[in-house]
Amino acid sequence: MFLARIEGQLVASAKTDHLVGRTMVLCRPLNDAGINHEEADEQVVAVDLIGAPQGSTVIVSTGSGARQAAGVEGSVDAAVVGLVDYLVIDGDRVESEG
Amino acid sequence: MFLARIEGQLVASAKTDHLVGRTMVLCRPLNDAGINHEEADEQVVAVDLIGAPQGSTVIVSTGSGARQAAGVEGSVDAAVVGLVDYLVIDGDRVESEG
Amino acid sequence: MFLARIEGQLVASAKTDHLVGRTMVLCRPLNDAGINHEEADEQVVAVDLIGAPQGSTVIVSTGSGARQAAGVEGSVDAAVVGLVDYLVIDGDRVESEG
Amino acid sequence: MFLARIEGQLVASAKTDHLVGRTMVLCRPLNDAGINHEEADEQVVAVDLIGAPQGSTVIVSTGSGARQAAGVEGSVDAAVVGLVDYLVIDGDRVESEG
Amino acid sequence: MFLARIEGQLVASAKTDHLVGRTMVLCRPLNDAGINHEEADEQVVAVDLIGAPQGSTVIVSTGSGARQAAGVEGSVDAAVVGLVDYLVIDGDRVESEG
User: Fold this and answer.
1) Cβ distance D3 to D27 under 8 Å?
2) Does pLDDT of B90 surpass 90?
3) pLDDT over 80 at E37, yes or no
4) Which residues contact C20 (CB under 8 A, 6 or more apart)?
5) Which residue has the higher pLDDT, D39 or C30?
6) Chain C contact partners (≥3 CB pairs within 8 A)
7) Which of A18, A72, B26, C75 would be C18's cystine partner, CB 3.0–4.6 Å?
8) Domain of residue D80, residue span
């Protein structure tokens, strides 16, 4: 799993049945959350399972665990599985960078 | 999953049975879709499940979920599972970069 | 699997059922453990299965093996599966860099 | 899946049962096949399922799909699953770079 | 799978049951084996299934195939599955770089 910021949503009318009715979000992995704000170069497309708002910091799961969490038999390989409230770094509470 | 542009197709006469009769496309991941146009260095070969046209922006799934979506028991580890109509970035509609 | 240092914890009240009651830690992969101290750019979020203290050097497993070790049917794709006591490099005992 | 060039073969007498009797090839991923010739920095070891000649351009599958294509219960995580005849890039036939 | 050099071993008294009694080795992937000697920046922790000596060049498998080869139900996502005797590059026998 990794931390990411929700950058936006995707609209795709032609897609496999597994993705119909799903909210697909564009996520930007955070490389250095809670320490320095640093974003990854690449983006990840994930199915949102928790109703994460735009700009929020989330936990993204990948692979077969993401597909199982989404309850589908294929297509999904990434899912938003948690909305971060805050981090605890070296004992200090740090707001997530959303 | 990730966004990619369809760069071309592959023709391969010698292949495993799982790939026979499949359209195999050469995909270029997009690192910064909807914001800055930036393409990844590497290419990915995927089985096309939606009939994506050359140059279009698509959603590519990887791993066992891609194989299951393709309905085969092996060989496939990436599949085109959606054709992007547009993105919504920070509340604004942004055309996908195809 | 890879070596990592525990940088902190995550608090996330909205999450999938698979993550409820789990300790989620923020891990920093170590690229050159036992030789030169060098940390990876990216962070990984893992479920802690062994009670690893902050700052310790741990073994992180990924993918379906991590999920199975956590005993859940989805969401988890990384888990802390071992706490490193020390390394043996070229026959010499080297303290892990925690 | 990705495109790669067959650079050589491996001889390994001590190995798991899953690899006994298998041709193991050293593959170099091609980052920019059909456009600019550019090779990846890393190499991949794959089980050859199609009898690919030295220097040829092939399709490599990874993960559980590769293992299933090889028909084994473990050890294999990459397999050569197709031999590329040619590419079609922007409607033009392009020879694969073998 | 990829080629790697065995750099050392790990001692970890606190670990999941799947790792108890296992030899865990620290591996350095080789990016350019048989051509130029070049090592990867990152290290991988793997369960040794073949008794590979320190410094030797080995084949490392990852993911569910590694776990199955190790015969466990979780935690393991990388395993040493072969000991390289030599490579054949462009028809020439090349000693592995151990």
Assistant:
1) no
2) no
3) no
4) none
5) C30
6) A, E
7) C75
8) 2-86
Which of A2, A26, A39 to mutate to probe the B interface, most B CBs <10 Å? A26
Show Cβ contacts of residue A48 under 8 Å, excluding neighbours closer than 6 positions.
A6, A22, A23, A24, A25, A79, A80
Cβ separation B24–D59 shorter than 8 A: yes
Contacts of B44 (CB under 8 A, 6+ apart): B4, B26, B27, B28, B29, B60, B62, B78, D1, D2
Contacts of B17 (CB under 8 A, 6+ apart): none
Average pLDDT, chain C: 93
DSSP H or E segment with residue D92? strand D92-95
User: What is the ipTM, given to two decimal places?
Assistant: 0.94
- In the numeric block, which tokens belong to residue E5? 């050099």
Gap from E11 CA to chain D (nearest CA, Å): 24
Number of Cβ pairs < 8 A linking chain A and chain C: 116
User: Chain E residues with CB inside 8 Å of D25's CB?
Assistant: none
For range A52-57, the mean pLDDT? 95
Kindly list the residues from chain E whose CB atom is less than 8 angstroms away from the CB atom of residue C81: 15-16, 18-19, 75
Contact of A74 with chain B, judged by CB distance below 8 Å, is answered with yes
CA distances (Å), origin E19, targets B56, E44, E47: 46, 15, 8
Q: What global pTM score does this model have?
A: 0.96
Determine which helix (DSSP H) or strand (DSSP E) holds B92, and give its type and residue range. strand B92-95
Give, as one character, the DSSP assignment of residue E18.
G
Beta bridge partners of B93: B88
- Confidence at residue D97, expressed as pLDDT on a 0 to 100 scale: 60
Three-state DSSP class for residue C41? coil
Averaged pLDDT for residues E14-41: 90
Look at strands B24-29 and B44-48 and give their pairing.
Answer: antiparallel
Q: A66: domain CATH number?
A: 2.40.50.220
* Smallest CA–CA distance from B34 into chain A, residue: A8
Q: Does E41 touch chain D (CB under 8 A)?
A: no
- Number of domains chain E contains: 1
Look at the block and give the residue holding tokens 């962070």: C43
Residue of B nearest to A47 (CA): B1
Q: Across the interface, do D11 and E40 touch by the CB < 8 Å criterion?
A: no
A73 and C CB contact within 8 Å? no
